[in-house]
Amino acid sequence: MKTNRKAPENGEGVVLSVRHAGEGGRSVRLFTRTEGKLSFFASRSTLRRCGAGLLAPFTPLRYSAAPSDYGGILTQYEGRAFFDMTALSYEELAQWYYAVEIAEQFFPEGQPDGTAYALLLAGAAQGAARNRTVTAFILSVQLLAAAGSDPAEEEPMRALRLSPEGQALLGAFRQWRWEGDFPLRIGRGAFLETARYLDRFIERYGGVAMKTRGAFLALPAGTGTPSQ
Q1: Distance separating alpha carbons of residues 7 and 63, to the nearest angstrom
Q2: Total structural domains in the chain?
Q3: Under 8 Å between Cβ of 217 and 200
């Protein structure tokens, strides 16, 4: 769809998704610091010059872009990935794409949201050092809350019959500030219960049928706290 938006000359953003586009280029979705979600095109020559490997989800970028009627055209970018998405298992990839899908579904196009931007950066940084499954889940919970659909509110937890243990765990996920040790022990059963609850919450209260629904139910044995 044609738009009159003028892309910023310079900006910062976190990569949400990348798809092949015409003539060897890439269609890139960024959550930018100043304008929220935006779409860009990176040509084959730009990919060769700046490195296609940087265009991976959860990579922070500094970029320059030229205006276009169909979105911005990336002319230059640089950044550093916190962790290698290609090294993740299929299950872990689905879990991180769950957070991407929330960012895509619950935040309006072209509308800045400093909280969501900060959360995406924090989640990417912590994903390099902590338990990635649990970190992606915390990011998903906090993105929903930032979008105004807080899964840790009393009414939905009661209506969807989340247990007291599950409520305590979900509340701790909601309040964690991305530093230090996580305050609770994360039991496998309680984690799976909160994961099932989040799927149902998004469908009932968010009105979204997630393509990645059930991603956190494929939980490997030994999953512990985000500090591990």
Answers
A1: 11
A2: 2
A3: no
Domain that holds residue 63: 10-79
Torsion angle of the four alpha carbons 186, 190, 191, 193, in this order, in degrees rounded to the nearest 10:
-170
127 and 192 inside one domain: yes
- Show the CA angle centred on residue 118, arms to residues 115 and 122, nearest 5°: 135
In this structure, the number of other CB atoms found within 10 A of the CB of residue 222 comes to 8
Domain stops at, among 42, 62, 79: 79
Please, where are the H alpha helices in the chain? 44-50, 90-106, 114-127, 132-146, 154-159, 164-175, 188-205
The arithmetic mean of pLDDT across residues 71-79, rounded, is: 93
The 3-state DSSP class for residue 50 equals helix
Instruction: Decide if 192 contacts 219 (C-beta within 8 A).
Output: yes
pTM of the complete model = 0.92
Classify strands 72-79 and 36-42 as parallel, antiparallel or unpaired. Answer: parallel
CATH number at residue 155: 1.20.1440
pLDDT per position as a tens digit, 12-70: 999 999 999 988 899 999 999 999 999 999 999 999 999 999 999 999 999 999 987 76
pLDDT exceeds cutoff 80 at 222: no
Task: Round to whole Å and give the CA distance between 150 and 46.
Answer: 40
Secondary structure (3-state) at 135 = helix
pLDDT at 134 over 90: yes
